Amino acid sequence: MNLVIQSPAPLQAVHHKPLLALARGSRLVPIDAHAIRIEDAAPAQRADLEVYCGTHQLDYAFVEPGRTLAGFGLLAMDMDSTLITIECVDEIADFCGLKAEVAAITEASMRGEIKDFNESLTRRVALLKGLDASALERVYEERLQLSPGAENMLAGAKAAGMKTLLVSGGFTFFTERLKARLGLDFTRANTLEIVDGKLTGRVVGEIVNADVKARVLVETCAQIGVEPRRAIAMGDGSNDLKMMAEAGLSVAFRAKPVVREAASVAFNFVGLDGLLRLF
């Protein structure tokens, strides 16, 4: 396998020799200032690499030689805490003084401690009842930020001919704005009910839970004529696991432990554009 090692800061040469030895590879090739590729690396060395890379805040990934980004057809992304840095529902709740209460439910749900995502979302949205809908615009304008490397990653995916899907257990208010802003091809999320300019505390239509996320990935692949094994899925929470399991490559981005353990690749330190260096 090829082993790709990445650093958020320039990767110091002092790491080259120990990494080559740990990986038992045949050759080390610089990719850019932040990354190297070690060829003929031994995946059996994963445990030692995990310790070394964790200590030095490096990300590592085993990649089959010859794989290219152009070999994939779809990039499917979670939104909250993946494509963007915030959890939108938590920030909305801040405008009615309930951020801590809502964030605690969000965290438990993403860690997989609350098994029923529908119940988790319904509980959180109910707490927003009566809030002026203008709070959504304020969250988007004042608090929503793209995760590091997001725009570079999307540019690279598009250059490779990939379609992009943003599939979220969050809200269409944000996914639709991001779709227009970033030129995304497909989006799917939950619709907050708004009556007379106020949130009713309810979601309209089918809730986008783990099963729906997985189904949307498969359906989108069918729509564009690619097999799910030619999809890349990125996420951070337990409700992303089923979607990630459908894809040919799964990326855990600054994710909960249960997601890191299940994913093909975990980015704990580098930005989303770390995806491009893998190929």
Summarize the structure.
The protein has two domains: 1-66, Alpha-Beta Plaits (2-Layer Sandwich); 69-279, Rossmann fold.
What does the secondary structure layout of this molecule look like, with pairings?
Layout: E1 2-6, H1 16-23, E2 27-32, E3 35-39, H2 46-55, E4 59-63, E5 74-77, H3 88-94, H4 99-110, H5 117-126, H6 134-143, H7 150-159, E6 163-171, H8 172-182, E7 186-195, E8 198-204, H9 210-224, E9 231-235, H10 241-246, E10 249-253, H11 257-262, E11 265-267, H12 274-277
Parallel strand pairs: 5-6, 5-9, 6-7, 9-10, 10-11
Antiparallel strand pairs: 1-3, 1-4, 2-3, 7-8
Helix pairs in contact: 3-4, 4-5
> What is the CATH-assigned architecture of the largest domain?
3-Layer(aba) Sandwich
User: According to CATH, what is the topology of the largest domain?
Assistant: Rossmann fold
Helix count? 12
Report the strand count: 11
Protein structure class: alpha/beta
The CATH superfamily of the largest domain appears as HAD superfamily/HAD-like
State the share of residues found in helices, binned by percent: 25-40%
- Show unreliable segments: none
Report the biggest beta sheet as strand number plus sense, adding barrel if it closes.
Answer: 7 strands, mixed
- Quote the distance from N terminus to C terminus: 12 Å
Cα gyration radius (Å): 20 Å
Strand content: 15-25%
| Series of secondary-structure elements, N-terminal to C-terminal | EHEEHEEHHHHHEHEEHEHEHEH
Mean of pLDDT: 96
The domain tally reads: 2
Coarse shape: elongated
